[in-house]
Structure formats: structure tokens, C-alpha cells
Specification:
Layout: E1 16-17, H1 59-70, E2 74-79, H2 84-87, E3 92-94, H3 96-104, E4 111-115, H4 118-127, E5 133-135, H5 151-163, E6 170-175, H6 180-188, E7 192-194, H7 199-209, E8 218-222, H8 225-235, E9 243-246, H9 257-262, E10 265-268, H10 280-289, E11 294-297, H11 303-308, E12 311-312, H12 315-323, E13 330-334, H13 337-346, E14 351-354, H14 370-381, H15 393-407
Parallel strand pairs: 1-14, 2-3, 2-4, 4-5, 6-7, 6-8, 8-10, 9-10, 11-12, 11-13, 13-14
Helix pairs in contact: 1-14, 3-4, 6-15
Bound molecules: iron/sulfur cluster (SF4).
The site of iron/sulfur cluster has 13 residues, from loops.
GO molecular function, one term: metal ion binding
Family: Belongs to the quinolinate synthase family. Type 3 subfamily.
Function: Catalyzes the condensation of iminoaspartate with dihydroxyacetone phosphate to form quinolinate.
């Protein structure tokens, strides 16, 4: 999803550019821009007191002063897709799961300031102790992918599987990028959470629970159809014909009972608004422009893009791949722009290209900016806890069951 005005030309010294759709608009609970309160999504964007002006020249100094005043009472987490101005104040950076575990490993930190999006702060609240308070600097920082699977839709979908006689042979697996309610659903139904790094392990575990890969058991994979499809086909050896897409906005998911019975992977119709933008044409164009380029993309990209790329992996994988790259090599990266731009700056010995010609950030990740961080830190110093994220205890219990199952998977 692009920020208005985000189509900007890059500094060619740092980066050069080459060049999932829904037929109906999805009801989005996100408040993309502006102020106000969206009661339906519990994502108000009001900030008590004055939010500092973005142009305030004292912002960095204020952030530093507030951070120093809080000391070990606060722990600031920064997701890889956050802005540089926010990452500069992060005590640790990482993907969503790494950050939640880092928060849990700091039980003395009274406040966990999560510079990321809503579902990540929920996971941090679930994994941290009751005495720790998790705050999200802007409550409008949601995730469009996570919002594509609402709990009532998922409950309805499960009813469809029950009616088709397939629910007992189906294990739900949900990506970290889902709400706490979806993780809890997964825990209640004997499934697991996965990350983009361990999705193949999670899928093997799930299939083993229902007769193995050679059996007839199924996985209901939520909410990212692309990660589910790419993992099943590229890493588990299933075919595209083994996959069906369940569209929650169509009766019966838009698939027949027979299709559900025949399928091995039931993919939720969700996608990432950022990674879904990359196309096979982007890959062809960068190869034509830079013949020796290595194309490295995130598995949230479409199957076409992933099959056209040279390498596929999570954000942590992408970071490690560039750390290990031979000097002078050329790379085209298909993931969120803040991370790619940072990697380009950190690796002047490499040529790093962004895979898309239309520069696009994750708009909700970008809602966390320096004014919101300053406002949050100063509020904590003044004794106010702003934008606390608290997961309902029952939901947290079952979500924890699914998260613990992930931690019990081989490799953790
Ligand atoms: S990059 Fe995609 S999956 Fe990540 S927070 Fe943004 S919309 Fe969600």
C-alpha cells in the first residue's frame, strides 16, 4: 500500500530501480491517514496531549533525553521495516518474532515500546509478563495482511470445513502476521504459528498430524496465501493443484465441497500489500538491465515472483545473505523499502537495487515516526502509559498455546 507522495526518485548512488489482487475492495479497518477513532477496529489515532510537529528541530534531542530518563525501565524494539529515524532509538532490531522474544527476555523492563505494527505488539504482550506494559506509539499502525483474516470469518470458514467433512483432517497454521484472535483460534484447534523462516517446518509438522505428506490430510494456512503456496510447492514438493484459495467474502469460500476434499493446502485469501506489488516483469526487467544481478525476494511475494527469483527468504535471511555477499556483486531485493535502503547504505561494497520501479513503503509501518516516538517516551517519563496493547486473557492463553507449539518445532 503506497503512501500518497511516496513515488519518489531515489538517490542513484544508494539504489537504482527497474521495474494479488482482489476484485472487490476489502473492508479495511485501517485508518491509513488522518485522525479520529475507528471503534470497529479499536484503532483510535488520538494522542493525548500535543504530538510534536514533524519539523521540530529538537525532536532528536527530546527523544534522547526521554530515553535517558527512562533508562532500563523501558525497552525499545524496532522492526526491520521501520524508518531510520526510529531505528536510531531501538535497543534491538529484528523481525516480529525475534522482537517479541527479546521483550520476553527483558523481564525487568517495565515498558516495552514496540516500533512495529499492532499484531507484533499483541505477540509481545502475550509473551511478556503481566508486570510489563507493551505500548504501540501509533494505534493506527496496523497490518493490512493481518486484517484480511477476521476471527468471525475464520470461525465461519471452519464451519464450512466441518460441513464438508474435512475439518477433522485439517490442521490450522497461522503466520505470525495475524491477530491474537487468529493465533488463539489456531491454538484451540491444535495448530501452530509459523514465521517466514520456519513455515516449511511448521507445515511438515502439521501434515504429520494428519497422515503425513503422502496422506490426504490438509492444512488451513492463514492469512498469507503466498507464503503458504510458496512453502508448500517449493519446499514440500506439493503441486499448485494441491492448493485452493478460500475467499472469506464469497459463499463457501468460493470453492466447492469436492475442491475442499481434494485440496492439501487451503490457502486463506490474504496477502501483503507491499510484497504483493512485485511482479515477474520486475524480475525480467532487472535481469535485462543488470545481467549479473542476483534477485532475492521475500516469500510473501507471489509464486510467479518467487519462481523467477534466484533466492527466497525472510528478512533475517536477506540481511545475512547481503552480509555474506562477495564485494562487487549486484543484488535486486524484493522486500520493504526501508530495509532495502538501509541495507544499501550498510553495504557500499555491493550494488543493491530495489526490485520495483514504483517506490513503496509499508504505509502502516511508516506511521511510527519520530514525533510519535517522542510523544510516547515523554508520556512514559511523565507517568502516563499511552496506547497500551493488552490482549484478552483467554485469547492470550490460546494464542500462547499456538506460539509455544511453534517454539516446540524442530530448530527452535
Ligand atoms: S509489510 Fe506487509 S505484512 Fe508487513 S506490516 Fe506491512 S502490510 Fe503487514
Amino acid at each position: 500500500m503506497c503512501l500518497p507522495g511516496a513515488h519518489v526518485l531515489w538517490d542513484h548512488a544508494a539504489v537504482s530501480t527497474s521495474t494479488g489482487t482482489f476484485t472487490e475492495p476489502a473492508p479495511s479497518p485501517l485508518l491509513l491517514l488522518g485522525r479520529g477513532v475507528d471503534l470497529a477496529s479499536e484503532r483510535g489515532v488520538e494522542c493525548v496531549g500535543a504530538l510534536p510537529a514533524p519539523g521540530d528541530p529538537s525532536l532528536v534531542e527530546r527523544a534522547r533525553a526521554a530515553r535517558d530518563a527512562l533508562g532500563d525501565r523501558a525497552f525499545v524494539l524496532g522492526h526491520h521495516y521501520q524508518r531510520d529515524e526510529v531505528i536510531a532509538f531501538a535497543d534491538v532490531t529484528g523481525d516480529s518474532f525475534k522482537l517479541a522474544r527479546e521483550a520476553a527476555a527483558r523481564p525487568t523492563a517495565e515498558f516495552v515500546v514496540f516500533c512495529g505494527v499492532h499484531f507484533m505488539a499483541e505477540s509481545a504482550d502475550i509473551l511478556t509478563s503481566d508486570s510489563q506494559q507493551v505500548v504501540l506509539p501509533d494505534l493506527a499502525a496496523g497490518c493490512s495482511m493481518a486484517d484480511m483474516a477476521a476471527i468471525d470469518q475464520v470461525e465461519d470458514a471452519w464451519d464450512v470445513l466441518v460441513d464438508a467433512g474435512t475439518a477433522q483432517d485439517t490442521v490450522p497454521v497461522t503466520y505470525m502476521n495475524s491477530t491474537a484472535a487468529i493465533k488463539a483460534f489456531t491454538g484451540r484447534h491444535g495448530g501452530t504459528v509459523c514465521t517466514s523462516s520456519n513455515a516449511h517446518v511448521a507445515l511438515r509438522w502439521a501434515f504429520d498430524r494428519v497422515g503425513g505428506l503422502d496422506g490426504r490430510g490438509k492444512v488451513l494456512f492463514m492469512p498469507d496465501q503466498h507464503l503458504g503456496r510458496n512453502t508448500a510447492v517449493q519446499q514440500l514438493g506439493l503441486s499448485l493443484d494441491d492448493c485452493v484459495v478460500f475467499d472469506p467474502r464469497r459463499p463457501g469460500g468460493g470453492v466447492s465441497v469436492q475442491q475442499l476434499r481434494d485440496a492439501r493446502m487451503i490457502l486463506w485469501r490474504g496477502h501483503c500489500s507491499v510484497h504483493g506489488r512485485f511482479s515477474a516483469r520486475n524480475v525480467a526487467d532487472i535481469r535485462a538491465a543488470v545481467p549479473d544481478v542476483t534477485v532475492l525476494v521475500h516469500p510473501e511475494c507471489t509464486h510467479e515472483v518467487v519462481t523467477a527469483a534466484d533466492m527466497v527468504g525472510s528478512t533475517e535471511y536477506i540481511i545475512k545473505a547481503l552480509d555474506a555477499a562477495p564485494p562487487g556483486s549486484s543484488w535486486a531485493i524484493g522486500t520493504e523499502l526501508n530495509l532495502v535502503r538501509r541495507l544499501a547504505a550498510q553495504h557500499p561494497e555491493l550494488t543493491v537495487h530495489y526490485l520495483d520501479s514504483t517506490v513503496c513503503f509499508c504505509s502502516t509501518m511508516n506511521r511510527i515516526d519520530l514525533p510519535h516516538l517522542v510523544w510516547t517516551l515523554e508520556s512514559l517519563v511523565e507517568g502516563r502509559v499511552p496506547h497500551r496493547i493488552e490482549v484478552d486473557p483467554d485469547v492470550a492463553h490460546w494464542a500462547r498455546v499456538a506460539l509455544d507449539q511453534m517454539l516446540a518445532l524442530p530448530g527452535h
